[in-house]
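Readers outside the structure-tokenisation community will struggle with the description of the input data as it stands. I therefore recommend that a typical entry be quoted early in the introduction. An entry of this sort, consisting of the sequence and the corresponding backbone structure tokens, reads as follows:
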Amino acid sequence: MWKIAIIDDERQVLKGMKRVIPWDELGAEWVGEALNGEDGLEMIRAAQPDIVITDLYMPVMSGLDMMERLRKEGFQGKIIILSGYSDFEHARQALRFQVSDYVSKPISVPTLKSILSKVIGELEEEEEKRIRQEESELKMKLYEPFVEKEWVRSAAVGTLDHAYKDSTHLPPAYHYWLERKHVTVGIELVRDERACCFSLSDWNLFRFAVSNIACEVACKLFTGVEYTELHSTRALLIIHPGAVKPDELDKKLEELGIGLIDSIGSYLKLVARIGIGGVKDTWTKISDSTEEAFRAMDQRALRIAPAFEVYRYQENSSSDQVGATLFPVKFSYKLATAMKASQESEAHQLVIDYITEMKQHDGVSQGSVQMLGSELWGIITYSLYESGLVLDNLFTHDQIAKEIGSLSGPDQLESWLLDKITRICSSRQWKGSSKHRQIVDFMTGYIHEHYAEELTLAELSDKVYISRNHLSIIFKNFTGETFNNYLTRVRIEKARELLMERNMLVYEVAEQVGYKNIPYFSTLFKKIIGMNPTEIIKN
């Protein structure tokens, strides 16, 4: 209801106005009245009406003086002047106080209704605008951490627009980059026989677990660290070492690589390989270090320890190899991103540019072409798998293997890839799902950051502005399980990590991950992990 206050020194006018205003029809209510400006000022301060109807000539304090005081105090309501005098000078002065209308007494009921309807219409428009602004600010606040993470990823892989490659566009949290050197550590999870059996939901959990492990291991050795996911099974640590000697830095980086492989293997039973890029003086060269890290890994160059797949980049390490120079991280990331968003023309252009560059290298063998075809198909299938799309209904494994085996040159590879991209992007199964992927990415990220809180699907539906039932369907389509099941698994996996550290009692761990009922927690834990919390500690 819109609140209306009336101020006039004639009691008859006050009674008449209260009687003739169609309150219900306007969706309004009377909230106060006064016989002079001074009393009116106090009443308005207390009632905070949306609309004030006031006379100008009143005892003690005039309407003009009252309006001036109100505006100075920040009163934002609408003011309608109803005066028995048609005084141009007073009307001119009233304009300074953002008056909505100025009418003379007596006023007819239709005219009064028309004026109030117009002013209420303005209020409704302003309210809608305010709500939209608040929603926009809420969205910005909500998505700000994710936008910031995307900025870091773009800087790491080299997709950041040139206009942003200067210190003025560094987000405040990363201003310290200007005072440090930079080096990247590439992480790749090996899809061995065990890992190939994992579901999409399993991989989501493992990705978050790897991020926690990587940050924990890295932060024990370095103060400036960021972690970002790339595509499929690849991720990246960006290290910003302070004042440290080159030899000491090399040792710490090698220790980090071994620690990552050891921890990922111990906690997650996953096989990982690590690549260490070159050290860069400026943050705009971080993407070069990223390329070097994964090139070292792909070329198996300078392995630092026989028992661990940790590789260091070497300046002159057979950089003329097709698989090294023509399979950059930037290209891989862009292709995966384009496929996730079903951007057919963008993916086509990336492939065309890629093959064009390949042709500039002499002696590209049939084996190299087939190897690259297999690698590129892996990027496409893994990126779509992460987005909830399995290509089994479009292409069989035997069919793809046979087609790749028949590729003999770059032109054939290009035609084959372009055809596959077109067929994928035009399939009914894929159309329209890229926005849903973004929503699910936000939801899973939010769950992993707030798992210890009282999370509900209804709460998240308010955040992404989608109905609860629809959101439930979207989430299950992409992850393969319900919101509650996913939340439970995240909590239990985190509990398992905490229990294995042996720094907390069972009830403390339960509370840490959001459970106050200890028996219920133990039941869930055994159901998901296969043993009781106490057995985890003993073993």
In short: Confidence is low (pLDDT under 50) at residues 317-326. The chain has four domains: 2-128, 158-315, 320-431, 454-538. The domain at 454-538 is CATH 1.10.10.60 (Arc Repressor Mutant, subunit A). The first helix runs from residue 11 to 20.
